[in-house]
Every structure is written in C-alpha cells, then in structure tokens.
Design goal:
The termini are far apart. Helix content is about 35%, strand content about 15%. Strands 1, 2, 3, 4, 7, 13, 14 and 15 form an 8-stranded mixed beta sheet that branches. The protein has 2 domains: about 230 residues, D-Maltodextrin-Binding Protein, domain 2, CATH 3.40.190; about 160 residues, 3-Layer(aba) Sandwich (D-Maltodextrin-Binding Protein, domain 2). The chain is α/β, with parallel strands linked by helices and about 400 residues long. Strand 1, helix 2 and strand 2 form a beta-alpha-beta unit. The radius of gyration is 20 Å and the shape is globular.
Length: about 400
C-alpha cells in the first residue's frame, strides 16, 4: 500500500532525527555557551548575482535528499537542473557539529534547530537574510516569522523550514482516566512506576519548567528556556524525582513505538509521527497537547556569514520552502511544513490537518526550542539565567 511506503520512508528519516537530536543534546560541554546575545552588525545582500555553480550544505538527515537513499525521494536533482547549482551536503551528527562546521567557513547554509541558531547568530557565523530575495518567504506561516530563535533586533537570520510539537502519549487501556495534564509524567508518575518514558535530552529540562510554570506560579517562570538558578533548580529537582518512575528514556523513536506496543511504556513524551506509527502498529494510544501546553521544535535554514556561494545558497533557501518541495520534505520527515501552500501539494491530503500545519491556536500552545543563555531570553536584566552548558551537566546528574 502507498501509505506503508510513505511511513517506511518517514521512519528512516525521523529515526535519524531522533538519534541526531540526542547527539545534539549530549554534545560538547560548551554547548549553548555565551553570556549575552550581541551579534555583529552584518548586512544582508540587497540583490543576488550570478550562480556560483555549487552550494555546500549542512543538514539533518532527511532534509537534503538526492535519491541516493531512496530513488523515489529526490528534491535535489530538479534543483540542480533548474539552477545550475550542484548540491554538496553533509549530514550533521549534532547541533554542536553544525556549529563547529559553520565556523570553518566551508559551508554556505545549515538547517539549524533552535538549540543552535542563537549560537550561530551571536558568534557572527550566521548572516542576516534578506527575505525579499526568497520569493517563497511570503507564503511562510506568519507565526514562524520573526521569532526568538530565528530573528534578533528585527533582523531575520533564516528561513523557517518546518515544525513539530512534543506531545503526551498514553495507552488508553492502561492509563485511566484519560490524562489532561503533564502531571501524568511528573507529580503522578508513581502511578505508572517503571512504565513512564521521557525524551532523552537536556532540552527536556524545559518540559519540566513548562509544567512548573503552570503548577508553581510562585517560581514566576515566563519562558522555559530562560531559567534563573532558583527556577532551574526546581526543574532539575522535579526531574530527579521523576527519574525514580522512569522505565526508559527514549532517543530512537522506533524503540518507543516498540515499547508502547509491548506495554513496557504506557505514558510519556512523543511526536505526532511516532503516535501515528504506534497506532498503526496496533497499540491503543492517543497523543495530545496537555493543558499546560508543550515544547516543540522549529528548524531554520541559515546562511553562513562567510558563504562562498551565497547566490546558490539563496536559491536553495527559496527552493526548500517552495510549496511542492516543502510538502515532500514534511511528509518524508514527519513535521508540519512552513509554507502554507505546501498543504495543497501533500500526497496525503489529511497530512496538514494531522500535523496542525495551519492551526495558529495550536502553535500558540507550543514553546519552541531555544538556546538558553545567561542573558535571560524572557527580558529580565536583574538576574542571570542558566546557560545550556549547565543544562547538559545537570541532565547527566538527573539520569544518575
């Protein structure tokens, strides 16, 4: 069946994403370092010149497909034919690797997640983008533009590519009554001791902070990625308490599918694509955004400040968010497309409904991944916030 082929492809791409995101979270000790966000005053080009004949990209697995992994999955070939820009791509193993590779000046563009984008901006490795030179930008959903992870001081530093939410999934037979809150995996986790699962990443600390924002107002948490020491300590304490009830932390989501299918896991964090596949495997599960909201991710294509092939890079940015290509990537990868017109190009006509692509109210409940830095992202200036390097160290302590 066609749906089985599509899901198989999605499994390959998204399983790679799961492993890569874990690597990003567990990367070098200086991940997310930096005390403040003061990007150099770089200028975006006012016009494009002649194509240079090639472009060098850093990307997550599944974002730059040329048919070599699957002959039926190729959006690079047409780009090369239409633009004359030969694509040279490298799959990065982590956000830390993306940052390090961009610092070499050998790459023109990168598909940065929120835990890398601010680092690239602050270090001057990513250049502002002239969105007028990316015609398809006009069709990007408005709530993806000018966001904290892709813009600074009103300047756009990239083109949004796709997004997804971290959901609460539960076994409808074993978890009753149906949960409505993240309390199912935090304060009430002991009810399902040994059968609770959580995402294996330091960025998961933000999930605890989001829950505390709603349940402990005295902490005055505004942004789960902007935590002062007291707020951070509270989130870490909650996660250490949760650890006693965790059956397993997941990074490879094929294992999460298997765990819910077998009953080893009955409640925990997930992604929409995982929930779909788990249900297709016969497990009785539901996944949703709890009443406190959820964390999530939004990836951005950014251009190097030292790009040797900036004209081809701009052509790539426009291509990858064009309606047909953005639809192909979204379905292959398992995420909501960034281009509103992409929904008319998906092979599965219910895809955008399933992934809430155009549901503005839905995305307002999502706190997208960002890079914690000492300069508090919530605007506070009277305290310092805990930078990501300390999140990494804390995560090791949490897991024991």
């Amino acid at each position: 069946m066609e749906i089985d082929v599509r899901l198989t492809r999605t499994i390959k791409a998204a399983a790679a994403l799961a492993a890569l995101t874990l690597a990003a979270a567990c990367g070098s000790s200086d991940a997310g370092g930096g005390s403040a966000l003061h990007p150099p005053n770089l200028k975006a080009p006012s016009k494009l010149g002649k194509s240079e004949g090639e472009v060098n990209l850093i990307a997550w697995a599944g974002y730059v497909e040329d048919g070599s992994d699957d002959p039926a999955v190729d959006w690079v070939g047409d780009f090369e034919q239409q633009t004359g820009c030969q694509v040279n791509s490298k799959v990065a193993a982590s956000s830390d690797e993306m940052v390090k590779l961009m610092k070499t000046g050998q790459y023109d563009a990168v598909s940065a997640s929120g835990d890398a984008s601010l680092r690239l901006i602050a270090s001057g490795d990513a250049a502002p983008v002239n969105t007028a030179l990316v015609p398809n930008y006009k069709d990007i959903y408005g709530d993806l533009k000018s966001q904290a992870w892709n813009s600074v001081d009103g300047k756009a530093y990239g083109i949004p590519h796709g997004r997804g939410a971290n959901l609460l999934m539960y076994n409808t037979d074993k978890v009753t009554p149906a949960p409505t809150s993240w309390s199912a995996v935090f304060d009430d986790a002991a009810t399902y001791k040994g059968h609770v699962t959580a995402y294996d990443s330091p960025i998961y600390i933000a999930d605890a902070a989001l829950y505390l924002k709603a349940t402990r107002p005295e902490l005055r948490i505004k942004d789960p990625y902007a935590l002062d020491q007291k707020q951070f300590d509270a989130a870490v304490a909650l996660l250490k308490k949760q650890n006693a009830d965790i059956g397993e932390y997941w990074s490879d989501y094929l294992k999460e599918v298997s765990s819910f299918k077998s009953g080893d896991s009955v409640v925990g964090t997930t992604w929409q694509v995982i929930a779909n596949l788990t249900a297709d495997e016969g497990a009785r599960v539901k996944a949703f955004v709890p009443k406190e909201g959820s964390t999530g991710w939004s990836d951005t294509w950014m251009i190097s400040a030292r790009a040797k092939h900036p004209n081809c890079a701009y052509k790539w940015l426009n291509w990858i968010v064009s309606p047909k290509v953005n639809a192909e990537v979204a379905e292959y990868f398992g995420e909501a497309p960034a281009n509103a017109k992409a929904c008319g190009e998906t092979s599965d006509k219910t895809f955008c409904d399933t992934y809430h692509a155009a549901d503005t109210a839905y995305w307002k409940k999502i706190a997208f991944w960002n890079t914690p830095i000492e300069q508090c992202l919530d605007g506070r200036t009277d305290v310092r916030c805990v930078p990501y390097a300390k999140w990494v160290r804390a995560w090791t302590e949490i897991k024991g």
